[in-house]
Write a structure and sequence with these properties.
The complex is a heterodimer of chains A (about 575) and B (about 170). Chain A has about 575 residues and is α/β, with parallel strands linked by helices. Chain A is built from 24 helices and 20 strands. In chain A, the strands form four sheets. In chain A, strands 3-2-4-5-7-6 form a six-stranded parallel β-sheet, with helices on both faces. A six-stranded parallel β-sheet of chain A has the order 11-10-9-12-13-14, with helices on both faces. Chain A has a six-stranded parallel β-sheet with strand order 16-15-17-18-20-19, sandwiched between helices. Helix content of chain B is about 30%, strand content about 40%. Chain B is elongated and about 55 Å long. The chains are: A alpha/beta (about 575), B alpha+beta (about 170). Chains A and B meet through strand 6 of A and helix 1, helix 2 and strand 4 of B. Bound molecules: thiamine diphosphate. The site of thiamine diphosphate has 20 residues of chain A, from helix 17 and helix 21.
Chain lengths: ~575, ~170
């Protein structure tokens, strides 16, 4: 079919099943946007390109589909960078289509020229510069394939402006042919046999799962394996929701602000069955003394993650969609009575965990962050998607919000990007209109992309934004209290922000809660009302997120609190 | 530190060298040399990388990370297979008439070539293993070396099987 490059982009997106694009126009993408107009292609104009890319990320994490972003050249593309890096760290599938200056202008420091491939190389799974319209269909086909298969990730497609205008005979390829990438990660069944044998020998095994279970959609297998083994389990923050919190033997997440029970179990287990995780420094503590008594079995898709930070005694390389069902079958076929073998160990870990559950102390007056989040968790149904920003509130949300299913706790784990939350929550709601979406954010983080309140209002996207206002960049303040003599250097937010007025100015309803009793009297009503709302909750400034493994310490050297 | 020579076959596409070099610098891998050129297949470029690593584990990291690049088709560690390794060097040495006879001797011993002579300089060319090239550089350091250009090592497997089918 005869068409121009701009039409070809949109046709290709349709073929990929894209039902929404987040973006922001500009000079070199005017042609593309003209076709968006003519085709009436579903598009959300955000307030900032960073908002667009985080929104696409939230859309992708909530739905499992590829998030799509449009931006113009130069400043538009540059504004995507933080969002692309965020998605890359957490293995989120995105396709970012940017306009580049026209072919003859490339390399001349032309107006709004920036080397998008150069900048995005370290933060994408792959990237392209399209200079010839005839390559466009193949490149878009490949971009979606690469973004969604294997270990998912962001792909950048930079398109020279004249390509959008050029007519050609369009044909969308049926298949992808890449010599260096198949997207198929079927592994070696012998490695699974070795893992089963190790499991049969182990006396005190612990299952430790991460975001790989979320992105591969294998939480059912995971749950069945844990049940068959009758072992305790823990997760990274990226794995939250893959086990229902409250599931038998689930100790909560591990790591720097993880649960006492999980961290102690890691340090005392004799076998750590790691599934779809990458041993980030946030979960290992001092890595040389991580799980010192354990043999490590690592189920992982990405060979580069095995032995990168922690040595694996056994590895099972391959897609979890391949390995976990097979592992489960072999465990079911085993003659070992796993449950009996692990009963005492399970009982022990649960008993240790009970000594120091996540806790907070109420004073009868102020709203304690833990109480607020626990209350909201109780008020929301099991399909609700919780989204967070970055800081103390993020950790409290991880501790006190009960994520019940995968893809329902969205947070910037690897990059820790403040400003992620609001646009991501908007993207999640647009991906899953039937699910409730609640955002936990801080008075620092929310300022970083608060322009998206206007976008949320424009499109009436029902996101409930809960701001934990502590008049502080709380997580920075916590470290300053603990390690820098309480010097609040550049961390106090004593200005006269009024988030209720901000909400109203942006076209949203705003509420302010200041007293503990309002969690019972007012909060449920606000949450039950349809439509977006901003709930500014004043919380005490000096609250610490505990437990905490200080930098460079072992997981069992936690600073505890609450007693 | 141990050195290994990796033959990396990549798609001959724009951006591929950025992807490879970007990865090396981002992951802070130690690279002794890197060279690239066309192959028997027009669509394939061969990149020869000499890495220097502390352990097998680090070597695996280099290979695994490089393998993840979409445009990398194949990586073979030729230091672990029967292979022939060569590097080319050109050395410009200050040489007056009285030094020349000595230099010709050295060139003969190393089976090198003199490829250019002017009244003040000679340019010596030598192809060989890195150790041999290091050796001639050392011997010539008694003279005044004006400049050196080295290509970095390249290698081929011995026997009939090419890297792409290993
Ligand atoms: C973009 C960005 N800049 C800086 C930081 C460093 N940082 C981590 S947490 C934090 C404070 C967050 O404050 P706030 O959003 O108010 O949340 P709180 O910790 O008070 O809950 C800062 C500045 C970051 N993670 N991201």
């Amino acid at each position: 079919m005869r068409m121009n490059g701009a039409q070809a982009v949109l046709e290709s997106l349709k073929k990929e099943g894209v039902d929404i694009v987040f973006g922001y126009p500009g000079g070199v993408v005017l042609k593309l946007y003209d076709e968006v107009y003519k085709m009436n292609f579903p598009h959300i104009l955000t307030g900032h390109e960073q908002g667009a890319v985080h929104a696409a990320d939230g859309y992708a994490r909530a739905s499992g589909k590829v998030g799509v972003v449009f931006a113009t050249s130069g400043p538009g593309a540059a504004n995507l960078i933080t969002g692309i890096a965020t998605a890359n760290m957490d293995s989120v599938p995105l396709v970012c289509i940017t306009g580049q200056v026209a072919n003859p202008a490339i390399g001349k420091d032309s107006f709004q020229e920036v080397d998008v491939c150069g900048i995005t190389t370290p933060i994408t799974k792959h990237n392209y510069l399209v200079k010839d319209v005839r390559e466009l269909p193949r490149v878009i086909k490949e971009a979606f394939f690469i973004a969604r298969t294997g270990r998912p990730g962001p792909v950048s497609v930079d398109v020279a402006a004249d390509v959008f205008n050029t007519e050609f005979d369009y044909e969308y390829p049926e298949t992808v042919k890449l010599r260096g990438y198949t997207g198929d990660y079927t592994g070696d069944a012998a490695e699974i046999d070795a893992a089963v044998a190790a499991m049969e020998e182990a006396k005190k095994p612990l299952v430790f799962f991460g975001g790989g279970v979320t992105s591969s959609g294998t939480s059912e297998e995971l749950r069945a394996i844990v049940e068959r083994l009758g072992v305790p389990s823990t997760s990274t923050i990226m794995g939250l929701g893959c086990m229902a919190s409250g599931a038998k033997g689930y100790l909560g997440f591990a790591g720097m602000h993880g649960s006492y029970g999980a961290n102690m179990a890691i340090q005392s287990c004799d076998l750590l069955l790691c599934i779809g995780m990458r041993f980030s420094d946030r979960v290992t503590g001092r890595v040389a003394e991580f799980a010192p008594r354990a043999r490590i079995v690592h189920f992982e898709l990405d060979p580069a993650e095995v032995n990168k930070n922690v040595h694996a005694d056994y590895r099972v390389l391959g897609d979890l969609r391949w390995s976990l069902p097979l592992f489960k079958e072999k465990l079911l076929a085993s003659h070992t009575d796993f449950a009996a073998k692990h009963e005492e160990w399970l009982r022990h870990t649960l008993q240790v965990a009970e000594e120091h559950p996540f806790s907070y102390q109420e004073d009868g007056e102020s709203i304690k962050p833990g109480a607020l989040i626990r209350k909201i968790s109780a008020l929301m149904d099991e399909d609700t998607i919780a989204v967070t920003d970055v800081g103390q509130h993020q950790m409290w949300a991880a501790q006190f919000y009960e994520a019940r299913k995968p893809r329902q706790f969205l947070t910037s784990g690897g990059l820790g990007t403040m400003g992620y939350g609001l646009p991501a929550a908007m993207g999640a709601k647009l991906a899953c209109p039937d699910k409730k979406v609640v955002l936990f954010t801080g008075d620092g983080s929310i300022m970083m992309n608060c322009q998206e309140f206007a976008t949320i209002a424009d499109h009436d996207v029902d996101v409930k934004t809960v701001i934990l206002e502590n008049h502080l960049l709380g997580m920075v303040g916590q470290w300053q209290r603990l390690f820098y003599h309480h010097h609040y250097s550049a961390s106090e937010l004593k200005g006269k922000r009024d988030f209720v007025k901000l909400a109203e100015a942006m076209g949203l309803k705003g509420y302010r809660l200041t007293k503990q009793e309002e969690l019972e009297t007012v909060l449920p009503k606000i949450l039950a009302e349809p439509g977006p709302a901003v709930i500014d909750c004043i919380v005490p400034q000096e609250e610490n997120v505990l437990p905490m493994v200080p930098g460079g310490k072992r997981l069992d050297q936690m600073v505890l609190g609450g007693e | 530190m141990k050195k290994y020579l990796l033959a990396v076959l990549v798609d001959n596409k724009p951006g591929v060298l950025t992807h490879v070099s970007g990865l090396i610098s981002r992951r802070a891998f130690n690279i002794e040399s890197i060279s690239a050129g066309y192959t028997e297949e027009p669509s394939v470029t061969r990149i020869n990388i000499v890495v220097s690593v502390e352990s097998e584990n680090e070597l695996d990291q280099v290979v695994n990370q490089l393998s993840k690049l979409i445009d990398v088709i194949k990586i073979v560690n030729l230091s672990k297979a029967p292979s022939i390794e060569r590097e080319l060097v050109m050395i410009k040495v200050r040489a007056t008439k009285k030094d020349r006879a000595d230099l010709v001797n050295i060139v003969d011993i190393f089976r090198a070539n003199i490829v250019d002579i002017t009244p003040e300089n000679v340019v010596i060319e030598l192809t060989g293993q890195q150790s041999k090239i290091d050796a001639i550089c050392e011997v010539l350091s008694e003279y005044e070396i004006v400049e050196i250009a080295r290509t970095g090592a390249i290698a081929l497997s011995r026997g009939p099987i090419p890297v792409k089918r290993m």
